[in-house]
């Protein structure tokens, strides 16, 4: 990246693939093998940005192995990898909506049209969460992410219960994909490969009043097909002004900083709406609103994101806590560890972030979580308890001094070789400072670590223990755990 520049790196990553998730056999009931793939992909494959964006999308468009079997979670993760660099509306919103995994998780699959005898209603679960969590939020937003207020100074709700009911009716009639050799029925048996399919006679064909666009009411006319109603409903949501700032802020929080300024959010939301970003050295995007390559480039190359590249211009309020999965993956990648993923899965679970197994549709942590005693947002800190703090420290201790499982190996010899001078392990600290802290190690931290390294007693393993001491102290420090 230093040789080619940011633009060339992003272009290369946008064109790189390689990661996938194999379909578990029919009889597999545990999510563990699929969870392990999350880590083996991260450690072995070149499509690092695609994996990272897909992972963040999985924390916005949440499904979970808590409800969805492994046979559904693997195709869902493949879908997110496929759409990570595509278009938010034409690819992601449509593909996730018709995903059998999402259909199972939020009850859109086999969502029957309302009946009169007995009186029934369309299931509202997906209709509500699609707006509340995946696209708009509960209150209308300005383009900088701030709340829009009415004349009395109160937030303006994004939607009403009446509109949730209308969207729920628009999403009726869809069932699982028809398995090879099967015949389409009203309620197909569970099958996870491919998008859900429509059983037209189970679709509500009455007119539906959706969200207004530009102050004008939006009515889906009676008699439309399942596919037409679905696409019109998604178009109606995508046309809402709140979508761009709502999604842009969450992507910034996941990829760069928990507390982006309103100006940062507005710049990215503007790119989201235009579909184009003119960055240094290249222009990204197709010009279609929702172009993910333009949005990602705008997020990563923004001046607010890049000010931490130089320690002299870094802002202490920037950055975000490395959530357990990323904390583990980042460390293993930094030291070239090899792993079958089993140990990392176990430790992530102990840190309250079992991969692909969120406890609820609200993810492992909410984007609005405020760090107690401060005015700072810190979503990932919602997982930081006394217990998980100790687990994080124990993970580093096991990784450095012991083992995190028989399937994970790491070799610190190269760093031991940097500590061969018994009186001056400064080269070791310089190397670790560059590798782990962007060269921003404070002078007080350096002095403390140097003291600890020099205190390692002489012996045949002194150099290795010096290296391990320095590595342990850096990886367990708050300066490393909060990524800048």
Description:
It is a single chain. The protein is mainly alpha-helical and 484 residues long. Among the domains are: 125-238, no CATH class; 243-313, no CATH class; 413-483, no CATH class. 45% of the residues lie in helices and 5% in strands. The protein has 21 helices and 10 strands. The chain has a two-stranded antiparallel sheet. A two-stranded antiparallel ribbon has the order 3-4. Strands 5-6 form a two-stranded antiparallel sheet. Strand 5 and strand 6 form a beta hairpin. The radius of gyration is 25 Å and the shape is globular. The two termini are 18 Å apart. The model has no long low-confidence stretch (mean pLDDT 96).
Q: How big a fraction of the residues is strand? A: under 5%
The proportion of residues forming helix, as a percent range, comes to 40-55%
**What is the residue-averaged pLDDT?**
96
Distance between the termini: 18 Å
DSSP helical segment count: 21
Keywords:
484 residues; mainly alpha; two-stranded antiparallel ribbon; 10 strands; 5% strand; globular
Kindly summarize this structure in a few lines:
This protein has 484 residues and is mainly alpha-helical.
List the helices and strands and how they pair.
Layout: H1 6-14, H2 32-44, H3 48-58, H4 70-83, H5 88-97, H6 100-105, H7 125-132, H8 161-170, E1 174-175, E2 197-198, E3 208-209, E4 219-220, H9 226-238, H10 243-255, H11 262-274, E5 277-279, E6 282-284, H12 292-301, H13 303-306, E7 320-321, H14 324-334, E8 338-339, H15 342-350, H16 386-401, E9 408-409, H17 413-416, H18 426-437, H19 443-454, H20 462-475, H21 478-481, E10 482-483
Antiparallel strand pairs: 1-2, 3-4, 5-6, 7-10, 8-9
Helix pairs in contact: 3-4, 4-5, 7-8, 10-11, 10-12, 11-12, 14-15, 16-20, 18-20, 19-20
């Amino acid at each position: 990246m230093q040789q080619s520049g940011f633009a060339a790196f992003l272009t290369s990553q946008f064109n790189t693939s390689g990661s996938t998730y194999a379909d578990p056999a029919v009889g597999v009931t545990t999510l563990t093998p699929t969870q392990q793939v999350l880590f083996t992909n991260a450690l072995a494959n070149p499509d690092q940005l695609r994996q990272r964006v897909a992972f963040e999308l999985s924390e916005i468009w949440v499904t979970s192995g808590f409800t969805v079997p492994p046979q559904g979670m693997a195709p869902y993760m493949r879908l997110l990898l496929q759409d990570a660099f595509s278009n938010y509306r034409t690819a992601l919103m449509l593909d996730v909506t018709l995903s059998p995994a999402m259909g199972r998780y939020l009850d859109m699959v086999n969502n029957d049209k309302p009946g009169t005898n007995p009186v029934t209603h369309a299931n509202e679960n997906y209709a509500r969460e699609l707006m509340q969590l995946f696209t708009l939020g509960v209150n209308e937003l300005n383009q900088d992410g701030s709340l829009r207020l009415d004349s009395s100074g109160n937030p303006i709700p994004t939607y009403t219960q009446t509109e949730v009911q209308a969207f729920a009716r628009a999403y009726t009639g869809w069932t699982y994909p028809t398995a090879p050799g099967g015949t389409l029925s009203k309620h197909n048996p569970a099958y996870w490969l491919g998008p859900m399919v429509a059983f037209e006679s189970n679709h509500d064909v009455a007119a539906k009043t959706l969200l207004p666009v530009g102050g004008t009411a939006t009515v889906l006319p009676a008699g439309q097909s399942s596919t037409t109603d679905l696409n019109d409903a998604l178009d109606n949501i995508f046309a809402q002004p709140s979508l761009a700032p709502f999604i842009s802020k969450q992507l910034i929080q996941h990829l760069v900083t928990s507390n982006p300024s309103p100006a940062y959010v507005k710049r990215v939301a503007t790119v989201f709406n235009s579909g184009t970003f003119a960055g240094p050295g290249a222009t990204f995007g197709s010009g279609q609103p929702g172009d993910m390559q333009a949005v990602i480039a705008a997020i990563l190359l923004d001046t607010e994101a890049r000010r931490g590249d130089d320690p002299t211009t870094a802002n202490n309020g920037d950055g975000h806590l490395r959530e357990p999965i990323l904390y583990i993956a980042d460390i293993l990648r930094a030291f070239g560890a090899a792993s079958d993923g089993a140990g990392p899965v176990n430790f992530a679970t102990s840190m309250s972030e079992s991969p692909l197994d969120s406890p609820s549709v609200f993810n492992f942590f909410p984007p609005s979580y405020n760090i107690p005693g401060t005015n700072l947002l810190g979503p990932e800190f919602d997982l930081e308890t006394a217990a998980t703090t100790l687990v994080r420290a124990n993970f580093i201790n096991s990784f450095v001094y012991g083992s995190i499982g028989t399937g994970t190996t790491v070799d610190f010899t190269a760093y031991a070789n940097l500590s061969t001078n018994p009186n001056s392990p400064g080269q070791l600290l310089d190397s670790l400072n560059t590798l782990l802290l962007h060269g921003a190690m404070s002078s007080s931290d350096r002095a403390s670590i140097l003291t600890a390294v020099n205190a390692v007693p002489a012996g045949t393993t002194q150099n290795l223990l010096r290296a391990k001491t320095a590595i342990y102290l850096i990886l367990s420090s708050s300066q490393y755990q909060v990524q800048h």
